[in-house]
Automatic annotation (TrEMBL):
Key word DNA damage present: no
The entry's keywords: Iron, Iron-sulfur, Metal-binding, Oxidoreductase
Molecular function GO terms recorded: iron-sulfur cluster binding; metal ion binding; oxidoreductase activity
Protein name per Swiss-Prot or TrEMBL: Uncharacterized protein
UniProt cross-references to InterPro entries, sorted A to Z: HdrA-like
Entry keyword annotation includes Heme: no
Amino acid sequence: MLKDACGVCKEFCEAEAIDYEQKEKEIELNVGAVILSPGFEIFNAKIKEELGYGNYPNVITSLEFERILSASGPYLGKVLRPSDETEPKRIGFIQCVGSRETDRDYCSSVCCMYATKEAIIAKEHAGEDLKCDVFFMDMRAFSKGFDEYYQRAKEVGVDYIRCRPASVKEIPETKNLLIEYLAEDDKKVSREYDLVVLAVGLQPPKSVKEISEKFGIELNEFNFCKTSPFKPVESTREGIYVSGPFTEPKDIPETIMQASGASSKVLSLLKDVKGSLIVSKEYPPEIDVEGQEPRIGVFVCHCGTNIAGVVNVPSVVEYAKTLPNVVYADNNLYTCSNDTQELIKEKIKE
């Protein structure tokens, strides 16, 4: 394995994109508008010491659990807990970690639904016997289809418990965890879990003060970019537009809508030069296949365990080979990946 400053990367880079002699330089651009969309930071769960993150191996964040559920994650999509890599029987989700409290008195918007999604997917991966409890303050399923998804979660066995857990304690012998909370009837209750997932909230990026000073824009009381209700993509400085969770916590669809709105505001400033930089797209010449027999290629996707978990992909490939005019059939782990796309292009050329 070649390491350090050997320069081998430059030799292997077909795009010739590596320049070891490149120096840092500043470039000044004269522009009429700027769109700021620096994103967000997730709350550092270690600050909530009473919840045990960083001390107990089986207390993880929602982002870490997302990776566990992924087919390309540490356990290839299997739901396992970190301490001993065994399948958990009970998972507890604690909501509003780092949100709706004295220092950050706002809702992070996305946590209710991503926890609901993770609970449903966990049950799909591990089986119906997996018990998932979601400890929440209020369910905020406010966007299109969200409430139906929340109802579906309850139908498949996800249990929602209205409370704010006071603490998480580990049982040393088993590494299991006790969640202690006050029930709605004011009785103290504790429940044992194999794995606890903390739904960490969203907060402004670390560089928000620097961004504010550099661009001359104001921040609100939570250090998100200050906007007005009727001008949600405009900052307090003319010509500087904003989008995404830089203005307040929001999910991906809402971020895309706001980014489109910000782009539209900027495009309206360019109406006088509309179409002046359009370049006609050139397509490669089509291959004349007139009079030839049809040639069909079949590429069956595993999609991790999303498809391969319910479909016998190799059998589908073998069956496809028996169909008329099929000259090529194969299976791929991820058909949408760049390497598979290149393979498909090569097979088409053949």
